[in-house]
Write a structure and sequence with these properties.
- The complex is a heterodimer.
- Chain A is mainly α.
- Chain A has two domains: 2-87, no CATH class; 108-326, MetI-like (MetI-like fold, Orthogonal Bundle).
- Helix content of chain A is 74%, strand content 2%.
- Chain A has 13 helices and two strands, in the order ααααββααααααααα.
- Chain A has helices at residues 2-29, 34-39, 45-55, 61-74, 102-137, 142-156, 159-173, 189-223, 226-233, 238-266, 270-275, 281-290, 294-322, and strands at 76-78, 85-87.
- In chain A, a hairpin with a 6-residue loop joins strand 1 (76-78) and strand 2 (85-87).
- The radius of gyration of chain A is 24 Å and the shape is globular.
- In chain A, 36% of the residues are buried.
- Chain B is α/β, with parallel strands linked by helices.
- Chain B has helices at 46-54, 78-84, 96-99, 106-118, 122-135, 141-144, 154-166, 184-201, 212-218, 236-241, 246-253, 261-264, 294-298, 302-306, 326-329; strands at residues 4-15, 18-30, 35-39, 60-68, 71-72, 89-92, 172-176, 204-209, 221-226, 229-235, 312-313, 320-321.
- In chain B, the strands form two sheets. Chain B has an eight-stranded mixed sheet, with helices on both faces. Chain B has a four-stranded antiparallel sheet with strand order 2-1-4-5, with helices on one face.
- Classes of the chains: A mainly alpha, B alpha/beta.
- Chain A binds chain B through residues 225-227, 229-237, 240, 245, 248-249, 322-325, and chain B through 54, 56, 82-87, 90-91, 93, 95, 98-103, 112-113, 116-117, 148, 150, 164.
C-alpha cells in the first residue's frame, strides 16, 4: 500500500513536470517578449534590456525552466543591486500586468472558484443521481422518457445561454435574487448561497444531464445482476434491494467521473465565472490569457493539473474503499 | 402434508418479438424430506419454473397455483411472498461468484437475511452466519465470514451460497444448477452436503439441472421438462429403468456409459438427440418434441401434431408421460 502510494505520488510529480514543461515551451515560442510585457508599452529599449537581464530571460530555455521549477519549491531572488526582489516559497513569479505575485493572485481568487465548484458539484450530483435513479426504476415509462429527453436538452444548451436565461428570468423579470456577486461563506452564509445559486445551476445543469444518463444505465445494468436477484431471494424489502445492493455498485462509475470533473473545476470555470463576473480563478485565467500574462497562466495551468491528478488519486483510493475487489493485498 | 403443491403453473413474457410462453401449465408436488429433480435443456422452462415459485419473476405473467404449506402464492400480496422468501423457502443459484454481492463480506450477506427475517441484532446474526458457514463445512468459519466472495474458491463459494440459503432454516430449498460451475469432485461434495442437510433437517428440495448424473445421485422424484411443459414424471428408479417418453430415452441414450464399451466396442459412440430445442416464440404445433422424435419419424401420427399431448398416467406407480404415440401410450 505504501509502495503503491509512493509510486502514484511520483507519477503525479512526473505528470506535473511534463505539463509544466509543455506550457513553458509554448510561452517561449510565442512572439510576445516577456520583458516588454513586464516593463510596459512605452518602455525605453535600455530599460527593456535591463528587465530582460533581471528576469533571467537571456539564459538558455532549459536553465530558465529549471529556475522556474526550483523557484516553486525554494523561492527565488531576481535582479541585482537596487532592483533585487525576493520571491518566497511557493514562487510562481509575478504578473506582467499588475506586478503582484502569481501565488497571491490565485490564492485570493481560489475561495470563489472552490465555492462555485463544490456547490455546483452538489447540485449536479443530487440532480443527476436523482433523475438517473428515478428513470432507471421506471425504465421505459413516460416518466423515464420525459426525463431522458430533458437531459438531452440540458446537455445541449450552452452554458452562456443558460446563464442569460436564468439571469433574465430570476434576476431581471422576477427580481427574486440580486445580480450575483461573490460573498464569502464565512461572512454571510445565506448571501453566499443566494449569490452563487444561479452560477451553480448554470454550471451544474449540463453535467447533471450527463450524470443522470450515466446513473440510469448504470443502475439498470446493476439491477439485472444475479446478486440483486439473490438479494430479492433472501426476502429483503425492495428498498434495501435497490438502495443497498443495487445502488452501491452503480455509483462506482459516478464516483470516478465526479473525481475528474470536480478536479478540473476547482481551478476555475472560465465561462461561468466570466458570465457572472465572479472573481474566481477561471476569470483570472481568461483575463490573463487575453493579455498573455504568462506567469499567471502558467500558475493556473499547474494548479488545475495538480487538482486533476490528485483528485484522480483520491478516486482510485476511494475505489478500493467502495469495491473490495480493487483492494491491494 | 405436502410442502409445495404446484398446479397448472404458466409463465409468459411479452417481448419485442412477441409473447414467449416459457412455462405452459406444469404440475408437481414437493414433500418434506424428498428431492424433486427437474431436468431439461436450456430453454425447457426449468429455471423459469423455479423463479416463478419464488415469486422472483419481474415483468412476467404468472398464472396457476403455487401452494406453499397452505399459503397460495400466486396473486398473493408481494409482502406475503417476500416474508416467505429466504425464510421458509430459499434458493441456491448456479454461479455463486455472480450471485453473491462483490461488495459485502460473506458473513454480512448471510447475517443480512437473518436480520431481515428475525429482526436479530447484528451480533446474533453474525454468530448465526458463522455457525451456518461451519455447518456447510467451511473451515475457520469465524475468520472466513469476514472475507469477500472473490477470496473464496469456487467450491467454498457454493458452500457459502448454501449457507446463505440455510441461514433462516427454510423448509424448502430450490437449487438451480448448484453444481454446474464446479469441477466433478467438488460437485460430489456439494451434492452430498445437500443430501445430508435434507436428511438431517427434513428439507424439501427442488434440484434443477440439465445433468442426469446429478438427478441419478440425488433425486427421489423426477420431472422432465421440454419446451416449457412437463413431458415425463416418475420416481427416479422408474425413470432411469423404464423411461416412457422418447425425449427422456434420448437424454438417457446420450449419456456416456462406462459399461457399454465392451460388447459393442467403439461403435457405442454417444447418441445425440438430433435437432435443437424448440423456439419458445413459435413452438411446433402439437407435441413440442415431434420434430426431433424418433417415434414420429418412424411412424408419424396425426395426434402428435394436432394438440399438445397431456401428461397421463402410464404405470400404476404414478409414472406419467406426455406421449400419444401408441408405442408409449399403450397400456403397460
Amino acid at each position: 500500500m505504501i509502495g503503491y502510494l509512493v509510486r502514484r505520488l511520483l507519477g503525479i510529480a512526473g505528470t506535473l513536470l511534463v505539463i509544466c514543461a509543455i506550457t513553458f515551451v509554448i510561452f517561449y515560442l510565442l512572439p510576445t517578449d516577456p520583458a516588454v510585457m513586464f516593463c510596459g508599452k512605452d518602455c525605453p529599449p535600455d530599460r527593456v534590456a535591463q528587465v530582460r537581464q533581471q528576469m533571467g530571460l537571456n539564459a538558455p530555455l532549459v536553465v530558465q525552466f529549471a529556475r522556474y521549477v526550483l523557484a516553486i519549491f525554494a523561492g527565488r531572488t531576481m535582479g541585482t543591486g537596487q532592483y533585487v526582489v525576493h520571491c518566497g516559497f511557493p514562487c510562481f513569479g509575478y504578473s506582467f500586468q499588475s506586478g503582484a505575485p502569481v501565488w497571491d493572485l490565485i490564492m485570493n481568487r481560489l475561495p470563489t472558484s472552490v465555492s462555485l465548484a463544490i456547490g455546483a458539484a452538489v447540485v449536479w450530483v443530487l440532480l443527476g443521481l436523482g433523475v438517473g435513479v428515478v428513470s432507471a426504476l421506471r425504465k421505459n415509462s413516460w416518466v423515464d422518457r420525459t426525463l431522458m429527453v430533458a437531459t438531452i436538452g440540458a446537455a445541449a444548451v450552452p452554458v452562456y445561454f443558460t446563464a442569460m436565461i436564468l439571469l433574465y428570468v430570476v434576476v431581471v423579470l422576477l427580481g427574486w435574487l440580486p445580480f450575483p456577486s461573490y460573498v464569502a461563506f464565512t461572512s454571510d452564509p445565506v448571501g453566499w448561497v443566494q449569490n452563487l445559486i444561479l452560477p451553480w445551476i448554470t454550471l451544474a445543469l449540463a453535467t447533471a444531464a450527463m450524470y443522470a444518463r450515466m446513473t440510469r444505465s448504470s443502475v439498470i445494468e446493476t439491477l439485472a445482476e444475479p446478486f440483486v436477484r439473490t438479494a430479492r431471494a433472501k426476502g429483503l424489502c425492495e428498498r434495501k434491494v435497490v438502495g443497498k445492493h443495487g445502488l452501491r455498485p452503480a455509483l462506482t462509475a459516478v464516483a470516478t467521473m465526479l473525481g475528474m470533473d470536480l478536479g478540473s473545476l476547482l481551478a476555475g470555470a472560465m465561462i461561468t465565472e466570466s458570465l457572472f463576473s465572479l472573481p474566481g480563478v477561471g476569470k483570472l485565467f481568461a483575463d490573463s490569457l487575453h493579455k498573455a500574462d504568462q506567469p499567471v497562466v502558467m500558475g493556473i495551468t499547474l494548479l488545475a493539473s495538480f487538482f486533476i491528478v490528485t483528485s484522480n488519486l483520491v478516486v482510485d483510493l476511494l475505489y478500493a474503499w467502495i469495491d473490495p475487489r480493487a483492494r491491494l493485498s | 402434508m405436502t410442502l409445495l403443491q404446484v398446479r397448472d403453473l404458466a409463465v409468459e413474457f411479452s417481448t419485442a418479438e412477441g409473447l414467449v410462453r416459457a412455462v405452459k401449465g406444469v404440475d408437481f408436488d414437493v414433500e418434506r424430506g424428498r428431492t424433486l429433480g427437474i431436468v431439461g435443456e436450456s430453454g425447457s422452462g426449468k429455471s423459469v419454473t423455479s423463479l416463478a415459485v419464488m415469486g422472483l419473476h419481474r415483468g412476467a405473467e404468472v398464472t396457476g397455483s403455487v401452494d406453499f404449506d397452505g399459503t397460495e402464492l400466486i396473486g398473493a400480496p408481494d409482502e406475503t411472498v417476500r416474508r416467505l422468501r429466504g425464510r421458509r423457502m430459499a434458493m441456491i443459484f448456479q454461479d455463486a461468484l455472480t450471485a453473491l454481492h462483490p461488495y459485502f463480506t460473506i458473513g454480512d450477506q448471510i447475517a443480512e437475511a437473518h436480520r431481515e427475517h428475525f429482526g436479530s441484532s447484528r451480533r446474533t446474526a453474525w454468530a448465526r452466519a458463522v455457525e451456518v458457514l461451519g455447518d456447510v463445512g467451511i473451515p475457520e468459519p469465524a475468520r472466513r465470514a469476514g472475507e469477500y466472495p472473490h477470496q473464496f474458491s469456487g467450491g467454498m463459494r457454493q458452500r457459502a451460497m448454501i449457507a446463505l440459503a440455510l441461514s433462516c432454516e427454510p423448509e424448502l430449498i430450490i437449487a438451480d444448477e448448484p453444481t454446474t460451475a464446479l469441477d466433478v469432485t467438488v460437485q460430489a461434495q456439494v451434492l452430498d452436503l445437500l443430501m445430508k442437510l435434507k436428511e438431517e433437517r427434513g428439507l424439501g428440495i427442488i434440484m434443477i439441472t440439465h445433468d442426469l448424473g446429478v438427478i441419478a445421485r440425488v433425486a427421489d422424484d423426477v420431472l422432465v421438462m421440454y419446451g416449457g411443459s412437463a413431458v415425463e414424471q416418475a420416481d427416479a428408479d422408474a425413470l432411469f429403468t423404464a423411461p416412457r417418453h422418447p425425449y427422456t430415452r434420448g437424454l438417457l441414450d446420450s449419456l456416456p456409459r462406462l459399461d457399454a464399451g465392451g460388447a459393442q466396442g467403439e461403435e457405442a459412440a454417444l447418441r445425440a438427440i438430433p435437432g435443437s430445442p424448440p423456439s419458445l416464440l413459435s413452438p411446433p404445433a402439437g407435441c413440442a418434441f415431434h420434430p426431433r422424435c424418433p417415434l414420429y419419424a418412424a411412424a408419424p401420427q396425426a395426434a402428435c401434431t394436432d394438440a399438445r399431448p397431456p401428461l397421463v398416467q402410464v404405470a400404476p406407480s404414478g409414472h406419467r408421460s406426455a406421449c400419444v404415440h401408441p408405442e408409449v401410450a399403450s397400456p403397460c
